[in-house]
């Protein structure tokens, strides 16, 4: 089977047998994760696409067999890899050009997750994107970078709470008393923790 030699060839393949998938997981409610999925019944075909992408600095996952066992797939899921592949393919895409451009806009902070979902929905209605029913509606009113910033702030707050950084600092007087109670009076640590519970 001939190897892929250009982004134009890969874009043509993606236009027919690829999709832009998105996830909004509970641990990332403020931003969407995008993946580029390539599917084919031929493992050789998928392997050629994979080798081209990996050879051009776009890391893919392993080749996986689809659930019904009739086709193979690879996914590009890392932020930088998705962005690079979309940038390279966009000039050559036809059917998936609108959703690829919208996905790039989202990953570049130009539109919100909700705006991206609206564009994907228009592509479904126009017959250019496959309908995938969702049990839970997606609501991501932030750009990718705003959502990422919010998540990091919340993560830092949770970490600080978990590590107890909001406890009061030991005063110099109590520090001396604790040392004296422990070293001179022989009080155990669990007794000191109860006696000085404010720390």
Strand-helix topology:
Blueprint: H1 7-17, E1 18-23, E2 33-40, H2 43-55, E3 64-65, E4 72-76, H3 79-89, H4 97-107, H5 113-125, H6 144-163, H7 172-184, H8 189-195
Antiparallel strand pairs: 1-2, 2-4, 3-4
Number of domains: 2
Q: Provide the low-confidence segments as ranges.
A: none
- Please report the distance between the alpha carbons of the first and last residues: 69 Å
What's the order of the H and E elements?
Answer: HEEHEEHHHHHH
Helical residues, percent: 40-55%
What is the number of E strands? 4
- Radius of gyration equals 26 Å
Quick check: average pLDDT?
A: 89
Principal-axis shape equals elongated
- Oligomeric description of these chains: single chain
Reported for the largest beta sheet, the result is: 4 strands, antiparallel
- CATH topology of the largest domain, what is it called? Endonuclease I-creI
Structural class: alpha+beta
Which class of the largest domain in CATH terms? Alpha Beta
Residues in β-strands, percent: 5-15%
Structure description:
With 199 residues, the chain is an alpha+beta fold. It folds into two domains: 7-144, Endonuclease I-creI (Roll); 155-195, no CATH class. It contains eight helices and four strands. The chain has helices at 7-17, 43-55, 79-89, 97-107, 113-125, 144-163, 172-184, 189-195, and strands spanning 18-23, 33-40, 64-65, 72-76. Strands 1-2-4-3 form a four-stranded antiparallel sheet. Helix 3 (79-89) packs across helix 4 (97-107) and helix 4 runs antiparallel to helix 5 (113-125). The protein is elongated.
């Amino acid at each position: 089977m001939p190897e892929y030699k250009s982004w134009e060839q890969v874009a043509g393949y993606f236009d027919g047998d690829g999709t832009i998938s998105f996830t909004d997981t509970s641990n990332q409610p403020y931003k969407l994760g995008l993946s580029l999925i390539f599917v084919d019944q031929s493992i050789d075909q998928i392997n050629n696409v994979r080798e081209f992408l990996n050879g051009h600095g776009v890391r893919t996952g392993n080749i996986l067999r689809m659930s019904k066992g009739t086709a193979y797939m690879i996914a590009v899921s890392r932020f930088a890899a998705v962005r690079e592949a979309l940038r390279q393919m966009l000039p050559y895409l036809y059917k998936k050009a609108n959703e690829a451009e919208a996905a790039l806009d989202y990953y570049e902070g130009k539109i919100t997750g909700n705006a991206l979902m609206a564009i994907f929905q228009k592509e479904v209605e126009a017959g250019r994107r496959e309908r995938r029913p969702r049990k839970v509606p997606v609501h991501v009113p932030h750009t990718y970078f705003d959502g990422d910033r919010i998540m990091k702030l919340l993560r830092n707050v949770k970490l600080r709470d978990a590590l107890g950084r909001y406890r009061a600092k030991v005063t110099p007087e109590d520090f001396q008393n604790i040392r004296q109670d422990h070293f001179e009076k022989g009080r155990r640590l669990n007794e000191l923790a109860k006696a000085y519970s404010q720390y």
